[in-house]
Amino acid sequence: MTADDLLAPLDLAFWNLESAEHPMHLGALGVFTAQSPAAAAHAADLLAARAAAVPGLRMRIRDVWRPFDPAEPFDLRRSLAFGGATRESDPAFDPLHHVTLHVPTADFQAEAGRLMERPLRRGRPPWEAHVLPGADGAGFAVLFKFHHALADGLRALTLAAAVLDPMDLPAPRPRPAEPARGRLPQVRRLPDLLRGAVSDVGRALDIGASVAVHTLGMRPTPALTAAPTGTRRTAGVVIDLDDVHRIRKVAGGTVNDVLIAVVAGALRRWLDERGDGSEGVVPRALIPVSKRRPRTAHPQGNRLSGYLMRLPVDDPDPLRRLGTVRAAMDRNKDAGPGRGAGAVALLADHVPALGHRLGGPLVSQAARLWFDILVTSVPLPSLGLKLGGNPVTEVFPYAPLARGQALAVAVSTYRGGVHYGLVADAEAVPDLDRFARALTAEVETLITACGS
Predict the structure, then answer these.
(1) Bridge partners of 139?
(2) What is the DSSP string of 57-90?
(3) Closest CA relative to residue 318, chosen from 247, 377, 413
(4) I need a labelling partner for 269 at 20 to 30 A (CA). Which of 56, 184, 229, 294 fits?
(5) From CA 189, how far away is CA 249, in angstroms rounded?
(6) Which regions of the chain are under pLDDT 70?
């Protein structure tokens, strides 16, 4: 076992947070234009053939229960990993177990929701690809599922791109070689290591205190909370990126500020239309922040922090909502992603492996006290994606749904469009399509308010 075999602390946390009602996998639904009636079947064959050649897709996760092997020299790293897990190549990997060609369907989103309910099998590499032929024969869709312990958003994108048609991407920047290390750190580096350790502890205390303060008196938003049912419903919305830029140029802020404000306004419209009311509703949104650099990051391990902010759902003025979101995001950025209640994911680094295993169920129960809704951004390449020569026209990212929460929002920009991918508890949010329509309506409201 090497250091690279061990799951990073946050990966291990995701692995142990999972339950049958709350699978911890990411998803992405790509919709393709079919170039021939056999395009979907050919796509399934291509995915299976290409997956066999991608090392990252052969990786399975295996639990570590032996602190040491009597037949081997003592290894402190293995002892500390007791109760953890390793990432290793599966010698029995068969891509046919991971790629499934389904019967034709008239509703890609309905089928995606059903498939997102099912946890990934733990004895195999934790990913799946489902090819969904369109009932009209004019297109097909592919749903990719990756366990969060295997990949974060950027890593999942890399793995999915490896089985799509090759793209002309810039070569990754080589990582600088690290100097060889012995079992003990070099004496000259001890002061820096100590300072770093003290800084890490201080940061962890800051985050812990901030989480405690932010959760005091926390009352979850009823419409965004749900008892675990294990059911899932998905929906997708595409809006014009040019519309977002028009709003941004008039009202200020970033594209991301506008996209978050659209979610706040859509929640207001949705709550009012379904009769729940938006008065006094200011749900907490977790905005994940990737600490991974796409061209230089280590290929494995989640690198996530986050911002926590109140969504001004109760404010009737669309431009004021955007201004509130912009100010909150500016404050978060000034503080940085390493501090504050939103950075709670960083605390995973300070928990031993066995602690993640024993504490996972407890932590999963606490998510609803920490935030009401997840709003995350998943980057996509600006170049057009294809599979077997069939172009991708839409891509809807899906985020995992935390225990006790009813709705998660993921967003990607692709080929001039902003794609919102929505995942909800199907029993708690039977009207997810209404929320999807509210997103489109909120963009139109902002455009009108901007005088565009």
Answers:
(1) 33
(2) GGEEEEE---S--TTS---HHHHHTTT-EEEEE-
(3) 247
(4) 229
(5) 49
(6) 1-4, 65-83, 168-219, 290-305, 337-370, 452
Return mean pLDDT, the chain.
Answer: 80
Which single residue is written with the structure tokens 């009597």?
A: 70
Per DSSP bridges, beta strands 417-424 and 407-414 are antiparallel
Going by C-alpha positions, the residue among 228, 339, 213, 318 that lies closest to residue 267 is 318
Contacts of 39 (CB under 8 A, 6+ apart): 32, 140, 388, 390
Residue from 237, 240, 238 nearest 416 by CA: 240
d(CA 77, CA 123): 24
- The pTM for the full model equals 0.83
The encoded tokens of residue 224 equal 């965004």
Give pLDDT, residue 227. Answer: 80
**Chain centroid to CA 200:** 25
DSSP state of 422: E
The H or E element that residue 127 is part of is strand 127-133
* Residue type at 15 in one-letter notation: W
Token readout for 16 is 């142990």
**Chain centroid offset of residue 259 CA:** 16
Other beta carbons within 10 angstroms of residue 56's beta carbon come to 20
